[in-house]
Model the fold of this input.
Amino acid sequence: MTFAQAAERLAQPPFRLLTPDEWEYACAGGARTLFRWGNDCPVDVDPSGAATRSLRYARNAFGLRIAYHSYCLEGSAPLETIHASDGGRTLHSGMPPFLSWLLLASAFRSELRVNSTHAWLHLRRVRSMT
Done:
């Protein structure tokens, strides 16, 4: 199954995929900080390591576990928009750890090549109320 086919299947009425703005709000849990847990970030520690697991995996104010690992892509509609990750590229390119932490920021957005595949791609859907 391709990414587009999976997205189409998940978006069958009465459901739809989150828009980028909805994803950002859901990730932040209503907070107005850089990260869902606040503005603090352990910049000298790799965000995928065990030392930061409890911070990253904690649920936000809405009870969601979201944007918790810089390898796990989160998608929204349109399908080219991704959040919370770059698939591990920043971690393995020798960049400073803070850049990897920025991927987990509620407002992070990037683009995904529609024809690419990634094993850790998550799509969240919502029930349409119309």
Observations:
- The chain has one domain: 3-127.
- The mean pLDDT is 82.
- Residues 46 and 74 are 20 Å apart (CA to CA).
